[in-house]
Specification:
single chain, inorganic pyrophosphatase (n-terminal core), Diaminopimelate Epimerase, Chain A, domain 1, 6-stranded mixed sheet, 10 helices, 14 strands, globular, binds guanosine-5'-monophosphate, binds manganese (II) ion
Length: 320
């Protein structure tokens, strides 16, 4: 029954994509490797079907994703997407709600929405929803959809999809890596996906200022034994002094602490504090903690954003 439902959703998604000519593809605020990789893969695929596609995000993207083919075509706009009504279809990728796109003008749109995602807090906001909680990444779901659409998986599409899978599985280290994930990875590699660049830019290469920032975050780790949470902070000033983005790398790195029930990285930018929460434990759903602060995410990796400032006091760091 569930399989049939999934099939119906896939068929409806293909129908929507095939009949639309002008398509808007959007992702989420603080876009990551899965969000951007999936957006680009979809754009390339739809272009091959002679569709006109605009990719828009509300933030800038991490510089380590610049190697992705076609990334210069993603428009980074805060508020206005011009002539929103002219789009026949909006595709939301990797986002649990339309608000997470950060694009205010989408609210006024009456175009149908195709929602492709794998977050458990997805509000099923689309006209058609392909939401698979067990998928490692949105890129993995998209791969299946592109096959169903009959799209030829080119080398560039394969690179973008593999970037999404590699990012969200944290280089195949997270338990969301399944045999299906590895099967798809194998197929993408056989299509020529550039694993060398993905490993280099997502995992290995770090600038001097990034490594220094990692050093600061590591030096400030502190353990709250009562809660079992190990946390660290990076203030606005710390981040300004470095060219770094993509702080989730630090969040993933500290999540390996065996004594911690959960780990938390708080970082401040433009009067906002973002929290990256991680847990390795199967009996903890860390997205519930993120939800208390207005955020969300997955069971083992979640985040939230609050307004405030990180201030150092004698007793330690405080949010003001
Ligand atoms: P990160 O800690 O790397 O920012 O995010 C971990 C996971 O939680 C990602 O899947 C991300 O999309 C999700 N996430 C991060 N911040 C938020 C938020 O404010 N709201 C929701 N719903 N999900 C978030
Ligand atoms: Mn994702």
């Amino acid at each position: 029954m569930r399989y049939e439902l999934a099939n119906i959703q896939l068929n409806r998604a293909c129908y929507l994509l095939k009949k639309s000519k002008y398509i808007l593809v959007c992702g989420h605020t603080r876009p990551d490797g899965d969000c951007i990789g999936s957006m680009l893969a979809l754009k390339l695929a739809l272009n091959s079907l002679s569709k006109r596609v605009s990719c828009v995000i509300s933030d800038t993207f991490p510089p380590n994703l610049w190697f992705l083919p076609g990334i210069e075509q993603i428009k980074s706009r805060k508020k206005k997407v011009k002539k929103i009504k002219k789009f026949d279809l909006i595709v939301s990728l990797d986002s649990s709600s339309l608000e997470r796109s950060g694009l205010e003008s989408l609210r006024a749109s009456t175009s149908p929405v195709l929602n492709i995602d794998h977050h458990q807090d997805n509000s099923l906001f689309g006209s058609v929803n392909i939401v698979k909680l067990k998928a490692s990444s949105s890129a993995e779901i998209l791969y299946n959809l592109l096959l169903r659409l009959g799209v030829e998986i080119t080398r560039d599409i394969a690179t973008c999809l593999l970037c999404g899978i590699f990012f969200d599985t944290d280089a195949f280290r997270n338990p969301n890596t399944t045999s299906r994930t590895l099967e798809i990875t194998s197929k993408l590699l056989s299509k020529g996906a550039c694993a060398k660049k993905i490993v280099r830019y997502l995992l290995q290469e770090k600038s001097l200022s990034t490594l220094k920032l990692w050093g600061k975050a590591l030096a400030r780790l502190s353990e709250n034994r009562k809660l079992g949470i190990v946390s660290t902070v990076l203030s606005e000033e710390d981040i300004k002094q470095s060219e770094t983005e993509g702080l989730e790398g630090i969040a993933n790195y500290i999540s390996c602490l065996p004594q911690a029930k959960a780990t938390l990285l708080l970082s401040e930018k433009n009067g906002l504090i973002h929290g990256n929460l991680r847990t390795q434990r199967d009996d903890i759903d860390i997205s519930k903690l993120a939800f208390l602060f207005g955020g969300g995410g997955h069971k083992k990796a979640a985040g939230f954003t609050i307004s405030g400032k990180l201030v150092k006091t004698r007793a330690g760091w405080k949010v003001e």
